Amino acid sequence: MSKTLNLIKANASNPKVWLVAGITVAGIIVVAETRRRRKKAMIIKREDFGAFMERFELIPFPQPPPPAAKLPLSGFTFAIKDIFDVKGHATGFGNPDWQRTHEVADKTAVVVTALLKNGAKCVGKTVMDELAFGITGENKHYGTPTNPNMPSNVPGGSSSGSAVAVAAELVDFALGTDTIGCVRVPASFCGVLGFRPSHGAVSTIGVLPNSQSLDAIGWFACDPSILHRVGNVLLQLKAVEPRRGRHLVFADDLFELSKVPKQKTVHVISKAVEKLSGYQLPKHVNFCLFIASNVPSLKGFCQHSTNLQNGISALQALSSAMVSLQRYEFKTNHEEWLKDVKPRLGPEVSRCVLAAINNTYENIKSLYKVRTEMRAAMQSLLKDDGILVIPTIADPPLKLKKGSSTEFHDRACALLSVASMSGCCQVSVPLGEHDGCPISVSFVTYHGADKFLLDTVLDMYASLQEQVSIASNSAPLPDLNGNMDASELLKEKGNAAFKGKQWNKAVNYYTEAIKLNGTNATYYNNRAAAYLELGCFQQAEEDCNKAISFDKKNVKAYLRRGTARDSLLCYKEALEDFKHALVLEPQNKVANLAEKRLRKLVS
User: Fold this and answer.
1) Closest to 155 in 3D by CA, of 170, 142, 137
2) Distance between CA atoms of 50 and 148, rounded to whole angstroms?
């Protein structure tokens, strides 16, 4: 430093020296200020997990004087997705070009005003997927909110910021919207409660539409009593004694899509309701077969190569109808703006928007017919006291910036289409963790039974969490090994039952054989075949894994595992199985046809 000063003194009369010195000092100041601002921004982002895009305060309406009762939401804070109008603020729809090209709102959304009237304070708007398109929660322009439970993974969307704000305990509850899962997915990924009400039950005045036939106002909370209170306000429910008669209906085939062991989902719920009064014995259904028989219009959305009675294909058809309906209505709502403005969009959203805009839609009436039939089918299944139990989503949260695959999207939409296309109410409930990822299940009941569902969650939540704790400390039972001759006899009995199409009996015989000899690949392979016939694809996959571990060249095991994975919509893994089968048996026609079909699907 002293050398620099001496140099300046020696050349003090030279103006160029002073110019260089001035520029250097200015540069140092600019760099220091930039670093300071970046550090401050990082601190702010860490504080709010990137959940908020705009902070402000909307003060609640004044508390009425005594003897009037205290407002039901007094003292609670909430945040709202950037899709709700607030007077004096431009609604951004998750995209800066939308915000730039629209005027500030002259009124506040009806639903926000209702919360303010009941004592809650709004503290800002949250980040969302652009144009409410997407279920990962990523946003190219405003950044992706940080999932408090899994910082390296996506928070889920499109109501990502609202879910994160609740999970990080920045607010007591938050509002979102749900079109094809935009509340349910982030609730599941962030480990909080998420409620999608019956379609049309909560006013959407002052809320930007994505697809009005599917859009519903939803909300998040960590505490079931807060979820219940918000529901009472928004649904304008009357305070009456809760209904006690309840009948859980487990969709066994839909739990086949989930990678979480049933010990941590189905078993937990079954044990929880055993200790509660007013619950009938649970019922188990094959949901896909039920809707295939009761929603006839789905035949028009089934792939030409599949049959509605074949496994999960009915749900794939329902999902296809849902996506087509969303795209059709989105195009009707926003095509003109998109063509005029040509907004900058993230790659995933851009793909969805282009698909919506470029598609031509034929037989629109059939989309609405599926919706009507689906609502009637759900009412028929659940009657007045039924609650359908399904996984909220099939897969754990994706890694950040990885992008969602066709497989991830198809498996998610298959489950999410149930409530979206029927208009039924659904609540996603956290059930602890599996392999470090949040687990959730969903309860769905018929259209208009929102209070019944909210009361149910409030009633069973404590018992569920108690069973979650027990299940997390339980170990699976070990396999038993035994006598070879007896196991072979049981295998033959299983084969006879299989030929007689007595699939359950075949499974029982093969299971007994496995107990006696747990290292025989054939026993697992044969049981996998019976499981496939029953539509128990996850069990079939597990048995094939066992068979392959004992016999690496077992072609039938690869074929059956490929079939199971294909039925579970795990296209890439299924493709690898059929490829492996072709390596072992190049002329195998089944493997050849499946490999060609899946290669097209994956590409």
Assistant:
1) 137
2) 10
Q: Across 113-178, where does the E strand assignment appear?
A: 121-126, 173-178
Question: How high is the pLDDT of residue 29?
Answer: 57
Check whether 87 has a pLDDT greater than 50: yes
Which two three-digit tokens encode residue 164? 């994160």
Task: With a cut of 50, say whether residue 169 has pLDDT above it.
Answer: yes
CATH number of the domain at 482-602, please?
1.25.40.10
Angle ∠(229,50,60) on CA atoms, nearest 5: 35
Give the SS3 label for residue 61: coil
Q: What kind of architecture, by CATH, is found in domain 52-473?
A: Alpha-Beta Complex (3.90)
Buried b (16+ CB within 10 A) or exposed e, 15-29: eeeeeeeeeeeeeee
Lowest pLDDT segment from 180-194, 233-247, 364-378: 233-247
Domain boundaries along the sequence of the chain:
52-473, 482-602
Gap between the Cα atoms of 402 and 127, Å rounded: 19
Same fold? 52-473, 482-602: no
Q: Are 427 and 450 in contact (CB under 8 A)?
A: no
Q: In what order do the strands lie in the sheet with 216-221?
A: 52-58, 121-126, 77-81, 173-178, 216-221, 193-196, 425-434, 437-445, 386-391, 247-251, 283-285
For residue 79, what are the β-bridge partners? 174
Q: Is the CB of residue 56 less than 8 Å from the CB of residue 123? A: yes
User: Mean pLDDT over residues 368-372, rounded?
Assistant: 97
pLDDT tens per residue, range 313-333: 899 999 999 999 999 999 999
Alpha-carbon distance of 53 to 40, in angstroms, equals 16
Distance CA 537, CA 519 (A): 21
